[in-house]
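Render Twin-arginine translocation pathway signal in 3D.
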Amino acid sequence: MSYIKIPHPLAEHILKLYDPQEGILPLVEPGMTPQQLIQRAVQEGLYADAVIFLAHGLPVREAVWWGCVCADTRNDWNEAEGNAIRAAKAWVHTPDETSRRYAEQTANEATLQNGAGWIAQAVFWSGGSMTGPSDPVVPPPEYLYAQAVGGSINLTAILPDGAHAETRYHQFIEMGINIANGGNGNLGSAA
């Protein structure tokens, strides 16, 4: 069985999309599927590595949505952070340039010291140009959005003090797997 939303049949294909941390690499075996690598990483407690891996495996809108549903599990966001999360959700529903630029603005207001700012930054890095609207087009590096999604989810799991990190990681990875299987991240409706 494979995740229907992940277009890569083998874990090694996803690992070639970014520079993975040393912790996850020894877990890889030839022919290993993404599901097998995620499961092994979780068993080894390499939650942040599993998050980055899955963020790179998912298509961009699904990856951003995953960050949004993880952020929705928290109720301690300030106004700027809440605006960044709402901007990211708006882009998922209407992935146009106006939504992308608004996410950039909200990321700047929320700062990149939290998961909310990073999920809006992921939207900004999802395509288009990283320069101003009237400047020459400079596209973001491919999969830069996935690094931002992973950063968002990892910060959302560990901040403010790491007290609930392991529980959150398990929940967030289950939500990501639900999305990879075609769900919306709502674990109450997981297949």
